[in-house]
Amino acid sequence: MNELLGAARSAPQGGSPVDLLAMFFLLGLVPLLAVSTTSFARIVVVLGLLRSSLGAASLPPNAVIVALAMMLTGAVMNPTLTRINAQAVKPYFSHRLSQSQALERGADSLREFMQRQVRPSDVAAFARIARVPLKSAAAAPFAVVAPAFMVGELRAAFTMDFALALPFAVVDIVVSAVLMSLGMFMVSPAVISLPIKLLLFVLADGWTLVAGALVASYR
Q1: DSSP-assigned states of every residue in the chain
Q2: Entry pTM
């Protein structure tokens, strides 16, 4: 990110070809940044593994999972996006900020959000990997905070999915034990356990509980 900001500062003003190439390059990175610097990664991983735990391999479909993850990401990121809009986007379109200043302010807001989620040990580990001198986790550059945030998101997603998958695993084990005790070896346990898991999940209002837990897991 620091290199991108440096390139934006050094790009000539006035819509030159180099300036346009830099802008197209930055626009190409927007989807990657949207996945790696927001809550989308944790949410979509949790929802995907939850679907696997239920035993429904393709339902809900990927489009529904991604759409729900995007909606929840919008709810989590709303304060940060509002701050970016007020501090960077609006001043830029009002010609009160240059491109580099707007990018720097937007990156600072994203870094503040990510720093609230990361562990200092992760930041220190990636600072050693990048060989960046680090006085404190709060002073870490964007290039160090971003991978630490991504690793923390994956850790949190797998932790939440373990807690979600455990009750479903218990149902599978109980159904398998009952079928074996009845001598019904030819009946697949998934045929019996899937309706039971779906019924329990619906009765517990599982989607609302999971969505609420995902949003509440961010600081």
Answers
A1: -HHHHHHHHHSPSSS-HHHHHHHHHHHHHHHHHHHHSSTHHHHHHHHHHHHHHHT-SSSS-HHHHHHHHHHHHHHHHHHHHHHHIIIIIHHHHTTSS-HHHHHHHHHHHHHHHHHHHS-HHHHHHHHHHHT---S-GGG--HHHHHHHHHHHHHHHHHHHHHHHHHHHHHHHHHHHHHHHHTT-TTS-HHHHHHHHHHHHHHHTTHHHHHHHHHHHT--
A2: 0.76
